[in-house]
Design goal:
Layout: H1 3-14, H2 18-40, H3 43-59, H4 70-88, H5 107-123, H6 128-139, H7 144-151, H8 155-175
């Protein structure tokens, strides 16, 4: 489904078409959940945030401006809700402990899982502003321009935050012996 289709679906939603909203939900539920999960590191919290995001989208259908991309609008809501969730639960500065791999199996699989867990733990040590650019660029595959639109900051600032975020992650991973 292309971006113009999203705009048409939003028009239909504004006209009371519930099926159009269900189509948007089906298309964006997983990406919204993934973004929330990467920001929160908790599947339960990510599900709650995902639900809140779609409630907000539904409640504010009339506030969507079709001159902007729909995915930028919904990702911005997702990031804001994730940050609000962190503030509400006083976990903005919480560090995530690495968990040991007890499943066994091939050495490479264990190493990959440890690295993935280490990366997520490292991601949780940086501020939400830096975490957001990493999530959008490396986990959701957004371009600099798309990140700029989603976060409502200039492309230069996106690049600067991304550089700093990468440096912070690298320092954390080195300190944990994972780089």
């Amino acid at each position: 489904m292309s971006e113009p289709d999203d705009t048409k679906l939003m028009e239909r939603c504004n006209n009371g078409d519930r099926h159009a909203f269900e189509l948007l939900l089906a298309k964006y539920e997983k990406p919204v959940f993934n973004a929330a999960y990467r920001m929160l590191n908790s599947p339960d919290d990510a599900r709650d945030v995902t639900q809140t995001v779609f409630l907000k989208v539904y409640e504010h259908l009339d506030q969507y401006d079709p001159k902007y991309r729909f995915f930028s609008w919904i990702y911005r809501i997702t990031l804001n809700e994730s940050i609000n969730w962190l503030k509400k639960t006083n976990r903005l500065d919480a560090l995530v402990e690495d968990t040991a791999d007890t499943a066994g199996g091939p050495e490479q699989e264990a190493t990959n899982e440890q690295l993935s867990e280490g990366m997520q733990a490292a991601l949780m040590t940086i501020s939400p502003d830096y975490r957001a650019v990493i999530v959008l660029k490396h986990l959701l595959g957004c371009s600099y321009q798309e990140i700029s639109e989603i976060l409502e900051i200039p492309v230069k600032k996106v690049k600067s935050r991304l550089y700093t975020a990468r440096q912070l992650l690298q320092e954390t991973l080195i300190a944990r012996g994972l780089h």
